[in-house]
């Protein structure tokens, strides 16, 4: 079975306060998007699609012919970004990883686990989650109180006070059945606080459309180490990621 990957790298990263595209800022000496492509190449992914936007030519210059490119001209949200890869991936059978270009600390073994769970369960999708002490700013994982199944992912700005108390968060990383992914994407609307097309809404859409497989529509893999999912949006988070990277490197036996 084929494996594909969509790497989201179109954001402007205005909070980085830099002219350099966010995903080209280095962690451990390597641009963060490079870490992710290296790991995907180590998994023999059939086709890696990098979605570029703001200063995309610099990302293309760095990655060159190692990957395929899709362009998100308008920044309309993560679901809209993934949809730009339809020309390259639509109509294919297999599994598609969706990763964000600003999470360079994710381990290859974790990405492989995400893929393995989707393959084994044959479900429509798997989301990578983490349990954190301070979930502020992250999308919350809403589970059925009886079955434990993931039934929704709610962004911070749209969450109720009760949902904001949920400690399980969305890392922004998924693995989907490719055909289910592209069947569901057009059903995502932008009726939310940000007026963006959120990829997280795919959970509700898949349930409403009856897109499922295996035990349920969407499975979840919970990270053991939440540091793997650190997303980088500010210079402070970049410094934190570099500290974690060097600490991880020091723990690796020689």
From TrEMBL:
<feature type="domain" description="MobA-like NTP transferase">
    <location>
        <begin position="5"/>
        <end position="130"/>
    </location>
</feature>
<dbReference type="InterPro" id="IPR025877">
    <property type="entry name" value="MobA-like_NTP_Trfase"/>
</dbReference>
<dbReference type="Pfam" id="PF12804">
    <property type="entry name" value="NTP_transf_3"/>
</dbReference>
<keyword id="KW-0548">Nucleotidyltransferase</keyword>
<keyword id="KW-0012">Acyltransferase</keyword>
<dbReference type="InterPro" id="IPR029044">
    <property type="entry name" value="Nucleotide-diphossugar_trans"/>
</dbReference>
<dbReference type="GO" id="GO:0019134">
    <property type="term" value="F:glucosamine-1-phosphate N-acetyltransferase activity"/>
</dbReference>
<dbReference type="InterPro" id="IPR050065">
    <property type="entry name" value="GlmU-like"/>
</dbReference>
<protein>
    <recommendedName>
        <fullName>MobA-like NTP transferase domain-containing protein</fullName>
    </recommendedName>
</protein>
<keyword id="KW-0808">Transferase</keyword>
<comment type="similarity">
    <text>In the N-terminal section; belongs to the N-acetylglucosamine-1-phosphate uridyltransferase family.</text>
</comment>
<comment type="function">
    <text>Catalyzes the last two sequential reactions in the de novo biosynthetic pathway for UDP-N-acetylglucosamine (UDP-GlcNAc). The C-terminal domain catalyzes the transfer of acetyl group from acetyl coenzyme A to glucosamine-1-phosphate (GlcN-1-P) to produce N-acetylglucosamine-1-phosphate (GlcNAc-1-P), which is converted into UDP-GlcNAc by the transfer of uridine 5-monophosphate (from uridine 5-triphosphate), a reaction catalyzed by the N-terminal domain.</text>
</comment>
<comment type="similarity">
    <text>In the C-terminal section; belongs to the transferase hexapeptide repeat family.</text>
</comment>
<dbReference type="GO" id="GO:0003977">
    <property type="term" value="F:UDP-N-acetylglucosamine diphosphorylase activity"/>
</dbReference>
